[in-house]
Structure formats: structure tokens, C-alpha cells
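Record type: monomer structure entry
Structure origin: computed from sequence
Chain ID: A
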Amino acid sequence: MRFLLGVLVGYSMRGNEKRLITVLATTAFIVYIVLPAIMLLALSLDVKKERQSRPAQTRVPAIKGLSYEDAETKLHGSNLNIRLLATRYDLPIQPGLIIDQVPQPGEEVVYGYAVGVTITKADSDRPGP
């Protein structure tokens, strides 16, 4: 760009070759302004098209500490489903509460995604061998 600008300034100072100055100035304008503008516009349209083709997403709410039924209600309100991943019998906290969830609260997922949960149960509810 500097070289081209130097050539333009040099020729304009001489004043002899008006047609060459015009051709060089037009070429510089097209190469450095018009073509990049067209490319950026095409890129912008492509990004918009790609974003519109994505499925709708929602944020995962926090459900740790809730009962399975309350969590299910809260997730259905956010257009999400619930799935039991594991049951823990060895924890000294109130049975029936959710102690972990996947994905974590605040993550964005598509509508209808199943949020996996781990719940606690009392030792007396453990199935036999």
C-alpha cells in the first residue's frame, strides 16, 4: 500500500501521466476498499444465515437441592427434560434431593435436551442383592 501511495504521489507531483495516475488510483481503490467491503458483506450474510439455521436454545436452570418432582417441573418450564443418571445411598443428607446435574446451571442447550441428575435415597430404599 505504501509503495502504491508513493507511486501515486510521485506521478501526481510530476503531473505528466494523468491516465496512469487515474488507473493506479482506481486500481488501489478497487483492491483496498471495494473488494474487502464485498468480502466482509458476504461474510456477514453467511454468518447471519448460519445463526438463523441453528435450533433454538435455552439456559439450564439450577436444580441442585430440589426434589425430583420440583426439578422436573422447573425443567419442563424451561422446555427441557429430566433424566436420572445415578442414585446415591451413602450420603448423610435428606433423601430424594438432587445433588448433581449435567449440564451445569447457566449452560445453553437446545430445547428438549435431557438434563441428567443424581439423587439421594435412604439406605432402607436400597434394592437387595
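Annotation 1: The two ends are 80 Å apart (CA to CA).
Annotation 2: The mean pLDDT is 86.
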